[in-house]
Amino acid sequence: MIELRIDYVYGNIIFSSDPAHQKIPDVHPEVLRDYERERQAQAVVEQLGFKQTERGWNKPIPKGEELYRFFNQELYYMRQLGEIYLGKKLRELYLDGQQHKPHINVSESGSWLDVSFDITGIKQNEVDDVLQSLMKNDDYHTLENGQVLSLDSEEFQETSKVLSQLRDSIHSANEGVMKVPLNQGLQVQDQLAGQAHFSEGFQEMTYDLTHPENFSAQVPEGIHAQLRDYQVVGFRWLKMLSYYQFGGVLADEMGLGKTLQTISFLLSEKQEKGGVQAVIVAPASLTFNWQQEIKRFAPSLDSIVVSGNKNTRENSLKQDVDIWITSYASLRQDIDDYRQLDINYLILDEAQMVKNSATKTAQALRSLKIEHRFALSGTPIENNLDELWSLFQMIMPGFFPNKQLYRNLSQDKIASMIRPFILRRDKQTVLQDLPEKLETNYYSALTDEQKKVYLAYLEQMREEVSAMDEAEFKKNRMSILAGLTRLRQICCDPRLFLEDYQGGSGKLEQVKDLIQAAKENNRRILLFSQFTSMLSIIEEELDELGIETFYLRGSTPPQDRIEMVDEFNAGERDVFLISLKAGGTGLNLTGADTVILYDLWWNPAVEEQAAGRAHRIGQEKNVEIWRMIAEGTIEERMNYLQQEKKELFKNVIEGNETQLQQMTEADIRSILSIGES
């Protein structure tokens, strides 16, 4: 029971509810008692549940929440009426958070961070329960012995905030030690700055993550290349992430040698550990390029391309090699075989190929249990941030929260999280000996007949789209995009779908003139188009002008591609015609100094890949990029949309703070308004 007495003090005279504590001198002046205040004190006591006894008042000792309320509210009310004196045993039932402060220590333990909590005066086996109360934002916690620990101090409130931030990362907790994935290290450091003690090993790790250029790793002997300074940094970055069992995205701009940096890393790992078992997954057209580059730069690495029919692929996977090279499609088909292999390195080349997490290929890749995973992509984001989530699910599962929570993260937060795990350099900043690109838009006018066809189709589309509400627009989005593609084909040449059309094409005539002028100035050209039938038309037109061409289709076998590229770089023929989607990746066409983009692509990242075929290491001339745009058509609006999409990439990967944009319903409606008077 809590025993309570009230003493009414008037100078040296004390009247008390307990006669044994009264002090009334035999001789004393007359006392004018404040009976109203005395009755008020008695009333408050009784309102708080105390029952009157012969010597004062009492009530049962409260527990839990009621005990916390007694110390934090009831005593407060009584203090308004006078001084309060608490007995020692009663005082010990309440632990003030100011005297029982939390202490946090952070250290690395294998692939985990140990975030340890210690609370002054609290048994370690009870710390977990205190932390649970903090995570629930409770004001107090009741200990096993009935004591109440107040959690409303500034220190405990800061700890509560930290736990809230770590909540989604906590893997397990036991006796005050919480396991958090090691890849959350920099976030933990930011969240606990000034509140925690960090172990020497943890501080070394966070330093390495923020200063990969200083990581202790030597370029391996036997690499047949002189790595540039920035390539050495990239190599050390790969080594550092691998050392801590992290994954990463090498996102250098096209042409900066991502392949060489990766091969150097794998060779180093083989030399240090006595062997590697690596799988390189690449677009089918690049698999043989990888094998050639490995033989060229690191002949001591044994590699094999896994391709052909099922039996051939199975035999390839049985070979005793360091590196298996396969395509995304083949890996998906053979995923059960790869699960049986003891693979410790996974390299995803042109990783934007699996930007959709729902595809079977992405699911197959996620099912592989591989310790070291890296992605190579000059464009890790092409359209939206979900692509980045999908990529990290493959290289560092669990790094990001689930997709729903991820979508609620700010752009700044995502950029901060990925910074140590994405390495992005561009040509402007690291490659002084690479000529500058000069980009020019060439506008052409539609011929009269071409304009009639264009306006007829445009008007038809406008009428259909203007009559649609938002729901109908969404339902018909694919057919609308198909209609836009039809308009783009008209801008190229109406013969792409009108067999009897004979009215000419303004853009085709312009590009023929430009190519002839370029030939006269000894320029060598790559010409890209999305439409293979357009390339066939251009091939015929140039042949009539006596201009020889190579023509790379999507169906061109990988070995033929390599031979065509080598011949063109050696000076054969004047123009290389390439399907935009077929030839956007992996080609090293430094024999060219002029790139013509005959038709614009919705996605500027695809065009950047095409332009990068010529603007690469080894180029000794200035490279010009010519974009062919039909004036007053949807191509003008498309060019504007491309600039907006480029900002998406820069915003998250390169740190610019602009609003993300995608092609919205408003954008499409705006495209169709181009040309209205």
Rg computed from alpha carbons, rounded to a whole number of angstroms: 37 Å
What is the correct CATH architecture of the largest domain? Answer: 3-Layer(aba) Sandwich
Number of helices: 27
Query: Biggest sheet: strands side by side, in what order?
Result: 16-17-15-18-19-14-20
Overview features:
677 residues, alpha/beta, Rossmann fold, 4 domains, 27 helices
Please tell me about this protein's structure:
This protein is α/β, with parallel strands linked by helices and 677 residues long. It has 4 domains: 2-92, no CATH class; 102-209, no CATH class; 211-430, 3-Layer(aba) Sandwich (Rossmann fold), CATH 3.40.50.10810; 437-673, 3-Layer(aba) Sandwich (Rossmann fold), CATH 3.40.50.300. Helices cover 43% and strands 17% of the residues. It has 27 helices and 26 strands. The strands form 6 sheets. Strands 16-17-15-18-19-14-20 form a 7-stranded parallel sheet, sandwiched between helices. Strand 11 and strand 12 (177-181) form a beta hairpin. The longest helix is centred in the C-terminal third of the chain and has 21 residues, at 634-654. It is elongated, with a radius of gyration of 37 Å. Keywords: ATP-binding, Helicase, Hydrolase, Nucleotide-binding.
